[in-house]
Amino acid sequence: MSIIKKLASQTAIYGLSSIFGRFLNYLLVPLYTYYFSAAEYGVVSEFYAYAGFFSVLLLFGFETGYFRFRDKAQLKHDVAYSTALMFVLLINLLFLGIIVIANNQLSASLNYSTHPEYVLCFTVILTLDAMASIPFARLRAENKAFLFAGIKIIEILITVLLSLFFIVYCPKELASHPESWVKDLYKPETGITYIFLANLIASAFKFIVLFPQLLGLRWGFDRALFRKMLRYSLPMVVIGFAGIINEMLDRALLKYLLPYDLKTNMQMLGIYSACYKLSILMTLFIQAFRFAAEPFFFAYADKDDAKEVYAKVLKYFVIFCVFIFLLVTLFIDFFKYFLGEEFRSGLSAVPILLMANLCLGIYVNLSIWYKLTDKTLLGSWVSIAGALITVGLNIWWIPLLGYMGSAWATLVCYFFMTLVSYLLGRHYYPVMYDLKRILGYIGLGIGLFCVQEHIPQYFSWQKPWEISGLLLATYLLVVILFEKSYKSQAII
User: Fold this and answer.
1) Are 214 and 135 in contact (CB under 8 A)?
2) What tens digit of pLDDT does each residue of 407-463 get?
3) pLDDT tens, 163-176?
4) Mean pLDDT of 75-94
5) Rounded to an integer, what distance in angstroms lies between the CA atom of residue 234 and that of residue 256?
6) Are 1 and 136 in contact (CB under 8 A)?
7) N or C: which terminus of the chain has fewer CB atoms within 10 Å of its end residue's CB?
8) CA-CA distance, 439 to 321, in Å (whole number)?
9) For residues 79 and 73, is the Cβ–Cβ distance under 8 A?
10) Domain extent at residue 144
11) Any domain includes 363
12) CA 133 to CA 151: how far, in whole Å?
């Protein structure tokens, strides 16, 4: 249990940056949805969807490759770091140059010919974030979680403060004082560009803070090591790209596949994307866990009790994720106020997206089988199959079901990937997960959600939040009782 506590503490530290930082960022959702229309927010969502795809392509899987070969280089200095960093810097500088040259044509092809600054801003953001990823990976590998968390939090604080400055303060200042000093900084017609600009400045700050990490370039470029890293990492690109397809493709396709005019399609995209944000608590926990778990899984792989620990990790992970699912779905009448009124029509997609993210988190745990056995190519086929399901179901269901089709497609995809990954893991790296309790807790969570959906009408003497609180307490009580009752039972 001590090693699990250590993983939990690392997850908590990374979660500090993710949960606190993303919570600050999450506060931007009501800001955007109250100050901008659904169509305008749809534009922002579309570009963030594209950013997800390029963030994978521009890193080439070398973040995970660095973790894999960092301790295997057997050299005096961290040559794996300098080798990975040189390659990522080169790729991103080439990408930036190409987009700058082709910006006008690319903007026109996306129907943003009057706003080429959208593409340019996001390109710079992408390159800065990708080039910072390897230095961040080094901080994680060296267990410098507090430094990692601090930089992340400050970056998000800058984004939030600049967003408030441009979107809230400047318009009010100009309205009351037309000759104010902000008139040279703020132009009302710029609109959502200020969202991109705030992100760009924050990303530039992060890169400047991490600039001393670039001194690692002096350790040189090892060609033999690079070839090994490339062979290992390229399948991770496929896995990552397929993962982004599963996570982001729906928001890229809604604009083109919804059966309405372009303006209405962008409104629907904005509504769906805003409601997707209500699954943020689940996403934050999974991200924090992934930051801590990836180096942990690699470092602990040679221990005699590794598989037993991995099994326990998954069980406790599921317990917490189901708690998050119930917290959001049972108290959705509270969380809905984080969105502008125009966006609340999409709340029915939130439980589906939360359950989809729960499946994704389980898949993250199960994926150790191909990472620890160097079967990344085989693992990539699982992701490719999931991506094909995502593409096919979105093309089929979006015209029929609208954005609800995208939500269901996401759930089906992640469930499929989880199931296949579990079956493959049983063959290549068998871990005896406690399936009875894992599936039991998930089933309990779904059951309590269904009760909350149907039973309140029979308890009119109670307030809805009291029923929700009772159901959430029921889940916690059942978990505590079962964990105490079966504490000494061996994992099956």
Assistant:
1) yes
2) 999 999 999 999 999 999 888 888 898 899 999 999 999 999 988 877 655 555 456
3) 999 998 988 888 88
4) 83
5) 30
6) no
7) N
8) 12
9) yes
10) 2-485
11) yes
12) 12
DSSP string covering 375-407, please? -HHHHHHHHHHHHHHHHHHHHHHHHHHTHHHHH
Q: How many residues does the chain have?
A: 492
Neighbours of 89 (CB within 10 A): 16
Q: Is residue 490 part of a domain?
A: no
Smallest CA-to-CA distance from 35 within 252, 342, 266 is with 342
pLDDT of 461 reads 47
Handedness of CA 120, 121, 123, 124 (dihedral sign): positive
Contact 435, 383 (CB under 8 A): no
User: What are the pLDDT digits (tens) for 203-232?
Assistant: 999 999 988 877 767 777 888 888 888 888
> Is position 364 within any domain?
yes
Q: Would you call 470 exposed, middle or buried from its count of C-beta atoms within 10 A (0-12, 13-18, 19+)?
A: middle
Predicted pLDDT at 101: 93
Q: Are 274 and 339 in contact (CB under 8 A)?
A: yes
Sign, CA torsion 337/397/239/82: negative
352/408 Cα distance (integer angstroms)? 7
Exposure of 348 in the CB half-sphere (CA atoms within 13 A): 8
Type of residue found at 234: L
Q: Evaluate whether residue 75 is within a structural domain.
A: yes
Cα separation of 376 and 423, whole Å?
16
Cβ atoms of 67 and 294 closer than 8 Å: yes
Torsion from C-alpha of 251, 253, 256, 257, nearest 10 degrees: -110
Q: What secondary structure does DSSP assign to 119-158, as a single string?
A: HHHHHHHHHHHHHHHHHHHHHHHTT-HHHHHHHHHHHHHH
Q: What is the DSSP string of 264-307?
A: HHHHHHHHHHHHHGGGHHHHHHHHHHHHHHHHHHHHHTTSTTHH
Total structural domains within the chain: 1
CB 434 within 8 A of CB 311: yes
Residue with tokens 């296949």: 420
- Contact status, residue 243 vs residue 56, Cβ threshold 8 Å: yes
Sign, CA dihedral 447-275-438-428, equals: positive
Q: How high is the pLDDT of residue 492?
A: 44
